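Morning!

This is the sequence you dropped in the shared folder:
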Amino acid sequence: ARSNDPPTAIWALFEKDERLKDRALEERLADEDRQRTAERRAASSVHRERIKRLRIAREDAWLAAITKLRGRYNPERDAIRSRQARQRADLKDRQSRLHIRLLRILDITGTARRKQEAARRLLSARHKAARKKLSVRYRKARTKAEDAVKTRYAAAIERTECERRKERAALMKRHEQMAQHDDAQRQQSEIE
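The structure's back. Tokens below.
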């Protein structure tokens, strides 16, 4: 205390002592608050990692299901492609024979050309319908496989998220009680 007045000097020493006590209290409370924050983050991280692992497992299961599904449908798709290519080649071969080409050249009314185009359109429509039928079956099987994988992992993910929410609520309640205790300590320090 620099003051020559004894009461002012005593008050200054008292103030200095109180600031030191308050600083020590605030440092301890700030450290406890940092520890609570770290605890919240660690708990959240644990649950986030669990959910992440479950989602990765779900994606792996989904990719395995798709691979299996493609393995089942690819031979059929390839067979349809080769059969349709063969049918198109046969039609083209039939329509490009010499006597058919001569009839088309000599056909003044265009009937032969219209018949050939109608045959191409009919073949194309049949091919399109066959591809669409396979595509619809594949999409249904894919949706069914996707639903099965989602259902298998949805319960585990939901359970983990529920655990996370419960643990977080309990942690927040405990931390709130600790924060109230800290406030009470601050108020008690002010009273003293």
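Headline: DSSP finds three helices and no strands in the chain.

More detail when I'm at my desk.
O.
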